[in-house]
Batch of 2 targets.
Target 1
Amino acid sequence: MADYCTIDDIRKMLDEQILIQLTDDERTGSVVESRVEGAIKDATDEINGLIGKRIPLPLNPVPDLALAICVDIAIYRLFLRRQSVPQERKDIYDSRIKFLMLVGKGEASLGEKDPEGSGGSQAPEITSEERNFTRTKTTDF
């Protein structure tokens, strides 16, 4: 299953030095890409777990919003490896998870590329059987 973001997407959001600090346990001075890929996979799995009952998986094409959410969750997971997640990152993670829960319930949409549509109208659709008693049917009573 394809992941919803890439290492390059993470690099656009995190300074290279911070990425090194979050992944370089061996102190080689470079990003350990396998750890970033692991965080991305975990983020993708977390997204799938929250929306999978409503939306066919994997997401293809990946909605832009799903990509952004995947980046945020992966970054959170990288910080979590160090056991000190900045409050800003924790708040972003929490809001992303709440949003995905709404998507999973059908109360929010991943946007234009959402396989289940863009959310559309929230108005209920009302249907019923044909009426048994109408004016023409009851004229002889």
Note: The radius of gyration is 23 Å.
Target 2
Amino acid sequence: MSTLKLNINWKLILAISILGLLHGVLSLFGIVRGWEQTIWIVFGLLSIISIVWKVKTNFFLHGLLMGLGITIFTGLPQSFFLDTYLNANPDIREQLDPTKNYSLFVLAFIPVFGSVYGLLIGIISLGIKRLTKNKREVNNDKSLL
């Protein structure tokens, strides 16, 4: 019986994912209000760059895990301290029905958004890694000179 060994850089995944915790805590106080889309793009780019530079195999899986990690660490503080989050972000509170509890909705949405975000990071990382690998192989091939 053979076993599948995955080479996963857990330190890198955790380091990038911790950025999500920073975002989640800062969002509780409204500090990142209005910058959320920019922050998600920056986190995605940092994830992609770190995968392309530091990871040697399983690029897609690293991207998926980073996306999930960032989203989990961002969403948990927002879910656990939803009232604090909504008080600091009144524009979001205005859009919600005050008779409903949204903590469970946030918790349920974390893996969905994290999976989609991670899929995008993974696909882009894999594509860039394949493109740069092919370019390096062409540049190192002496028979083409």
Note: The CA atoms of residues 74 and 84 lie 14 Å apart.
